[in-house]
Design brief:
The structure holds two protein chains of two kinds.
Chain A: H1 4-15, E1 21-25, E2 32-38, E3 49-55, E4 66-69, H2 99-111, H3 121-129, H4 131-145
Helix pairs in contact in A: 3-4
Chain B: H1 2-11, H2 32-37, E1 40-43, H3 45-63, H4 67-76, H5 81-90, H6 92-99, H7 142-153, H8 175-181, H9 184-201, E2 205-207, E3 216-219, E4 226-228, E5 234-236, H10 249-260, H11 263-272, E6 273-275, E7 282-284, E8 291-293, E9 300-302, H12 324-331, H13 333-387, H14 395-419, H15 425-449, H16 453-456, H17 464-492
Antiparallel strand pairs in B: 1-3, 2-3, 4-5, 6-7, 8-9
Helix pairs in contact in B: 1-17, 3-4, 5-6, 11-13, 12-13, 13-14, 14-15, 14-17, 15-17
Classes of the chains: A alpha+beta, B mainly alpha.
GO molecular function (chain B): ubiquitin protein ligase activity; zinc ion binding
EC number (chain B): 2.3.2.31
Protein name (chain B): RBR-type E3 ubiquitin transferase
């Protein structure tokens, strides 16, 4: 049974969408969202469209949604399996936060990587030591994988 | 060492007197060990909560705050009143903020009026039962508070530090809201965590680790590591494991790891197996003949020289007399090394087996002694009802058995201790102390395992044999106790302080 909260959140996502983010519920499972995030301007991800899946566990909103990137992305806080390191998806989750806030945070993570708390050490290391090379690689990956 | 035994026996003279009073074994000359052991206090969970309540009350008075604020602040400072006081009086506003006692409108403003009648979690209109007890004004319905707490309770006792459910709100959820919202089992769970936040953060208070036991122990002086809970469980205050005197926590852990680990299997493999020279699978030689055939690859070789069997024959001194061994050994350095390693491993394993055997022997003997407890109870009952010995005169049986159990426990650990002890002159002292205790504990154990039927026999009217038996046992008890003390005191004062 769909909860009033999930219903409202879903409605609002379609009536009042977030710029650069498309989130549509799965046809068979209202807890499952197919997400597309467009790479923010002035970042190496610009021009790419990144697919992600968002899932609301039964305990939502007492526990955070689970979000996974489906498109390969060269980013220090997102690993090869698409897992995301983001505080509000873990210890800083608050039940008063919503799907919107999560998606907006992920979008801004693309513009503002957190190099101090990397998920992929190697990627973070490259961003620290040779930002130009790292950005070039991120741009290339965006072209190769996020350019449908 | 012997002199102790003698002096004790002297004291015990005349114990076979039928008229003598209750032996009151616990009044044997009090040793340091016993004096040390009493340096802790045991509380029930109610008593510890009372103690906690007093601290809260004390802080309320010092800081002039209400109960909720006192509790929140204490939790923030891990229940250290001194630290809380120091910070509070040096910068009250900052400390209040750090503890989560004041809202922060700049970071997290109260909800705007448009949504003020909706619960910020479930989005349903708030009814009369809306709860707004935190000072920040973030409103959530009762159901959402309940769900929020239920989820937090799964996180363990740190949940008592939970912040307001609003994102970014620095306010700590107050004790009274927890109590207001939760009911039944969940409330009990919270109250337990509330208490645990105090006991777990306080270094000299630990709960008895025995499952289901609700006592906790306050170690007053830190001198003692072994404590006996009111439930009868002996445990080490420092590591929470079963008591392991005279070994240190580290040594005991090392020994247990050694017993558990597979490493001994590996040592055994090295000592008793060789690898097939062709397929490298380990092979145990279980028959006398040196002609080996690998089960897996069917390779035939000689166990002695590891050479192919096809090279064996009359030319090499006969099938069962491999003289190629020495030759191989000297010509191939690798093989010599392997042999050395095998020898070393064999020796190491032998040493371990020696100590482990004796260790587990005392474990088993201790188990037997524990199993005897109900039998001894029945015996005391029978001696009292059927032969009308006063109960007070029969305590010695129970106390003797308790002493055996105590000794077995220490004795088993002396073997772990001995295993890691370096070979030097202090080792001899230790081994002597160990031997004396072992001998006497065995004797005491034997006394308690003897056949009691003759004393219970109906025709037997003479009580003398029983009092003779009692006198023997009590003497043995005293001597054993003395050696027990000698050993522990000796070791714990660092007499043999030469562990690898």
């Amino acid at each position: 049974m769909i909860t009033p909260r999930i219903k409202k959140e879903t409605e609002r996502l379609s009536t009042d969408p977030i710029v650069g983010i498309y989130a549509t519920p799965d046809e068979t499972n209202f807890r499952h969202f197919h997400v597309q995030i467009s790479g923010p301007a002035d970042t190496p991800y610009n021009g790419g469209l990144f697919k992600a899946e968002l899932f609301l566990p039964d305990e939502y909103p007492m526990v955070p949604p689970k979000v996974l990137f489906r498109t390969k992305i060269f980013h220090p806080n997102i690993d090869k399996l698409g897992r995301i390191c983001l505080d509000i998806l873990k210890k800083n989750w608050s039940p008063a936060l919503q799907i919107r806030a999560v998606l907006v945070s992920i979008q801004s993570l693309l513009s503002d990587a957190n190099l101090d708390d990397p998920l992929d050490e190697e990627v973070a290391e490259l961003f620290k030591t040779d930002p130009e090379a790292a950005e070039e690689k991120a741009r290339q990956w965006t072209l190769d994988y996020a350019n449908e | 060492m012997e002199s102790h035994g003698d002096s004790v026996e002297e004291e015990c003279e005349g114990w076979d007197d039928e008229e003598y009073e209750d032996p009151a074994l616990e009044n044997t000359p009090s040793e340091n060990t016993l004096a040390k052991i009493k340096d802790y206090r045991i509380y029930t969970s109610e008593e510890i909560m009372e103690k906690q309540g007093k601290i809260i009350q004390n802080v309320r008075e010092i800081l002039g705050v209400d109960e909720d604020d006192a509790i929140t602040a204490l939790k923030h400072f891990s229940w250290s009143v001194e630290q809380l006081e120091e910070k509070w009086f040096s910068d009250e506003d900052k400390t209040k903020y750090q503890c989560g006692l004041v809202p922060d409108d700049s970071k997290c403003p109260p909800p705007n009026k448009k949504y003020a009648d909706l619960c910020q979690i479930c989005f349903l209109p708030l009814k009369k039962d809306k709860i707004n007890s935190l000072k920040c004004g973030h409103i959530f319905c009762r159901q959402c508070w309940t769900d929020f707490f239920d989820t937090k309770l799964l996180e363990g006792y740190h949940c008592v530090m939970s912040k307001c459910p609003q994102y970014g709100c620095p306010l700590t959820v107050t004790h009274s809201i927890w109590k207001q919202i939760l009911t039944g089992k969940h409330l009990q769970r919270y109250l337990k965590f509330h208490c645990k936040s105090y006991t777990d953060e306080t270094k000299n208070i630990n709960w008895c680790p025995k499952p289901g036991c609700n006592f906790c122990v306050e170690n007053v002086s830190y001198v003692v590591s072994e404590v006996e809970c009111n439930c009868g469980h002996f445990f080490c205050f420092k590591c929470g494991e079963d008591s392991h005197r005279p070994c240190s926590c580290e040594l005991a852990k090392k020994w247990m790891m050694k017993n558990k680990s597979e490493s001994e299997n590996i040592t055994w493999m090295i000592a008793n197996t060789k690898n097939c020279p062709k397929c490298q699978r380990p092979i145990e030689k279980n028959q006398g003949c040196n002609h080996m055939t690998c089960n897996m690859c069917k390779h035939e070789f000689c166990w002695m020289c590891m050479g192919s069997w096809t090279e064996h024959g009359n030319a090499t001194g006969g099938y069962y007399k491999c003289n190629k061994y020495e030759e191989m050994k000297s010509s191939k350095n690798d093989l010599t090394k392997l042999e050395e390693e095998r020898d070393r491993a064999k020796h190491e394993l032998k040493k371990y087996m020696f100590f482990f055997e004796r260790y587990s022997n005392h474990v088993k003997a201790g188990d037997h002694a524990n199993e005897m407890k109900p039998k001894i109870e029945i015996l005391i009952e029978k001696l009292n009802t059927e032969k009308s010995y006063p109960i007070a005169e029969l305590h010695f049986l129970k106390e003797g058995l308790d002493e055996v159990i105590r000794c077995r426990k220490v004795l088993k650990w002396t073997y772990a201790y001995g295993f890691y002890l370096n070979d030097d002159k202090e080792k001899a002292l230790f081994e002597n102390a160990q031997e004396m205790l072992e001998k006497n504990a065995d004797r005491l154990h034997e006394y308690l395992e003897q056949d009691f039927e003759p004393f219970l026999c109906e025709e037997e009217l003479d009580k003398k044999p029983f009092y003779q038996y009692k006198s023997n046992l009590v003497n043995c008890y005293k001597v054993t106790k003395q050696f027990y003390t000698n050993l522990l005191d000796g070791l714990e004062r660092g007499l043999t302080n030469n562990i690898i």
